[in-house]
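$ ./design --mode recover --in tokens.txt
reading tokens...
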């Protein structure tokens, strides 16, 4: 029996990047003889009643597995509740999406991260000037420091602040959204590593360097080069992926003093086009093989 899978991406995003990721996975699945259909998240809706189900115009049977490249975690969860194996599972996507939740998992396992202080939650639009106890935060983390929103991507919600005034201004600008204060790893200015993890392995990796920005993933003028991680860097990336319960992820590592790796982020839905073009290794092949192995270990026919 041929395995069937759905690849789900977000129907509200027009950007080619998201379609491209879904297509790369579909091509890799077809190469391995798996029948894979691409769906938008809004093609499939959770219908909750005494008989929970999903409703879809195409009225197809549920697949043997789903690859979820989206962050619609309610839908991912509903598919799991209906018994479909979802890669990555909803909980891993939710933890990855929320950088505070990610750092909590990593810190609990004593994995190396930048020192991080979680901003207290507030319910009002106005805050009194000392709500965030700025002096204590500067004392703990020093200046310059990073202010980072819990939800964000492409470096757009990550800020480097140099003075107390800038820090106050930034907290006021993003107040109301979850964020954290974080130690600035200055030895990593404008560079980081991206390691692509599948299961217990790093399948490919690259070093990213920005031209004039502290964020390595700000692409204007930045460069990428293939990178061979050390055993320690690779094992750290695998541990980080497992820490959030993900099957595969793009793990970003910063360069600490003497280049010791520090975990910056775990992307459960990391796009793979850039790393493929940089290293000539397509992680989609390993992702599909991994899913086949997981399903056969669970006794599905493959
Ligand atoms: N604590 C830090 N110290 C130094 N550089 C950082 C730090 N946090 C993030 N960066 C830089 O900013 C980039 C984006 O941060 P990241 O947390 O990965 O957010 P995003 O999800 O937007 O990619 C990283 O790739 C790294 O280059
Ligand atoms: Mg990142």
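writing sequence...
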């Amino acid at each position: 029996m041929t395995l069937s899978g759905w690849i789900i991406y977000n129907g509200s995003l027009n950007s080619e990047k998201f379609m491209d990721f879904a297509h790369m996975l579909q091509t890799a699945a077809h190469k391995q003889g798996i029948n894979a259909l691409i769906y938008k998240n809004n093609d499939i809706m959770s219908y909750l009643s005494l008989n929970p189900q999903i409703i879809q115009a195409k009225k197809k049977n549920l697949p043997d597995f789903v690859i979820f490249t989206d962050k619609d975690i309610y839908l991912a969860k509903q598919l799991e509740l209906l018994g479909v194996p979802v890669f990555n599972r909803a909980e891993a996507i939710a933890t990855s999406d929320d950088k505070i939740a990610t750092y909590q998992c990593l810190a609990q396992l004593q994995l190396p991260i930048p020192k991080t202080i979680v901003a207290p939650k507030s319910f009002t639009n106005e805050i009194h000037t000392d709500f965030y106890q700025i002096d204590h935060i500067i004392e703990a983390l020093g200046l310059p420091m990073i202010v980072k929103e819990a939800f964000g991507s492409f470096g757009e919600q990550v800020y480097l602040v140099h003075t107390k005034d800038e820090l106050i201004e930034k907290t006021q600008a993003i107040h109301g959204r979850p964020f954290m204060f974080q130690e600035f790893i200055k030895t990593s200015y404008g560079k980081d590593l991206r390691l692509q993890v599948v299961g217990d392995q790093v399948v490919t990796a690259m070093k990213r360097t920005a031209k004039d920005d502290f964020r390595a993933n700000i692409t204007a003028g930045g460069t990428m080069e293939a990178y061979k991680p050390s055993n320690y860097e690779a094992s750290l990336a695998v541990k980080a992926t497992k820490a959030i319960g993900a099957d595969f992820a793009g793990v970003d590592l910063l360069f600490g003093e003497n280049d010791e790796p520090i975990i910056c982020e775990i992307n459960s839905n990391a796009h793979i086009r850039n790393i493929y073009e940089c290293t000539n290794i397509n992680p989609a092949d390993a992702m599909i093989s991994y899913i086949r192995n997981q399903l056969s270990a669970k006794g599905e026919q493959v």
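exit 0
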